[in-house]
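[09:14] KT: can someone run the structure on this one? pasting the chain below
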Amino acid sequence: MKIAVINAGSSSLKFKLFDMQTKEVLKSFNIEHIGENGAKFNNHHEALESIDVDFSSLDAIGHRVVHGGEEFKESVLINGEVIDTIDKLSTLAPLHNPANLEGIIVAKKKAPNIPHIAVFDTAFHSTMPKEAYLYALDYKMYEQHKIRRYGFHGTSHAYVSKEAAKILDRNINELNLITLHLGNGASACAVKKGKSVDTSMGFTPLEGLVMGSRSGDIDPAIVLYMQRELGLSVDEVDKALNKESGLLGICGENDVRDILNSKDEKAKLALDMMIRRIQKYIGSYMALLGRVDAIVFSGGIGENSPYIREKVLESQMFNGIKSLVIKTNEELEIANECLRVLKK
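[09:31] RB: done, structure tokens below
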């Protein structure tokens, strides 16, 4: 069985083709700068047309969709109603869902006679209890506007949780894990008996850990201060928190490799802040889970920086807990999800 996975960004298209018997990647394409000045491809349709694959030979195509809201708690076959709902959810993920939807529409035109399946970044976190996903705001904010914690990187957290169970030779339904997806975007997840019960990202991917250019947790009143006292507009505050904060805001760099090689005091400070925040989340998740069988590191930083891993785990509180480094594979998890949906 052959399953393709498409991850469509606003100006990019990633495509992987899997042989599901062997889980081998048969073909892989990564097209960037779509629609930009001087780019080879003006739109996603042109980009997909350039991919040298016989689409009629595929058994299914899986699509990464960032935000599934409360509507999608698992992966689904894509039909007109699903497309309309993903479109409505674009208000919650304006940078991602419209691009994901563009990829779906283009691919369905290219391969109209095979199943297309949407796999949502938020779905893994749909098992969080209400006390975990609600904010302590007026309850009407949730009822009327669906303002709540959704969580992201769910496909990665799901994949590494399953891989951890294999490595530990345990049934995932018996395991309590803390999974850390550490890249330019970063999140932590408390996994109890194979299910997400809490995660650091919230209503948007801005909440939680200190990230490459995102602030993570801050006092919400800072936003009011930036607007009232500093005269910043909504868009300027958005840019400040999402693109000018985090490691970049503290030391002027967002690449951990460059920061690790720097002798600047602010570089060390930025790393210390990032590590401290990760430790705080691990500690709080230990309290929630009661017993932790392993702490799992994944993502570009989690997989490739022994220094960060060592500093995170140096607290005596974490002694005796296994630590695992697992290379995440979100595309394979999406393909596996497609297989699961097809077998229903």
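[09:33] KT: thanks! Residues 170-330 form a domain with the Nucleotidyltransferase; domain 5 fold (CATH 3.30.420.40).
[09:34] RB: yep, looked fine to me
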